[in-house]
């Protein structure tokens, strides 16, 4: 059965006790789960949030990125080995959070570009790293879902066709795919065709408006998205990922220069919107 989640990046990329009342309110709205960004170094904070989520019966997913010093597609075997170790550390933090899914562009370093189109050797390197990460994730039944990002944030996987190509190389039961409506709005010609492409591998969905504001207020063709997901028998997470300037350092790092929506407006209206769309397109 599908579940609805909310990514707390709308408030903070950190993990601290400041998120506890936010988790409580998300639970009261009706959310099934909360998504945290994994990046902060303090291990105890992840355990504290994971325990609180368990205490209030809120499920957890996670999202992350890797940097150029741990790039899974770097030509250097030493750097790629660092990518494996970094992903293992991130997987450990998922365990601390009791997370069931790890989303994000784990296939390559965020906003790190080569002066060429993606090479087959880079897909091979990425697949090797993700396969090792999948082996490690299997110990706690975590599913890793690499994410295709738009062309301004990565180059290895911009489309569902590219992501499918990578996942076929990985060929691991704990490494599947995800679909983000914001990135697809930029990169895909037809969203229904993109969903059909990734459907056999799909394990996570980010519900993101075209401007990263409240879902349902922009020009994403939501009826097409939810109808196609329903026909594809998708029954995983529908997690809202919207951004604000609440966390200035994070906002600057992803080029968010203005406010698209208030976080609680996004959370309250977005939850109702997703409920309505799931019910409308139930098959």
UniProtKB/TrEMBL annotation:
<dbReference type="Pfam" id="PF01261">
    <property type="entry name" value="AP_endonuc_2"/>
</dbReference>
<keyword id="KW-0413">Isomerase</keyword>
<dbReference type="GO" id="GO:0016853">
    <property type="term" value="F:isomerase activity"/>
</dbReference>
<feature type="domain" description="Xylose isomerase-like TIM barrel">
    <location>
        <begin position="24"/>
        <end position="258"/>
    </location>
</feature>
<protein>
    <submittedName>
        <fullName>Sugar phosphate isomerase/epimerase</fullName>
    </submittedName>
</protein>
<dbReference type="InterPro" id="IPR013022">
    <property type="entry name" value="Xyl_isomerase-like_TIM-brl"/>
</dbReference>
<dbReference type="InterPro" id="IPR050417">
    <property type="entry name" value="Sugar_Epim/Isomerase"/>
</dbReference>
<dbReference type="InterPro" id="IPR036237">
    <property type="entry name" value="Xyl_isomerase-like_sf"/>
</dbReference>
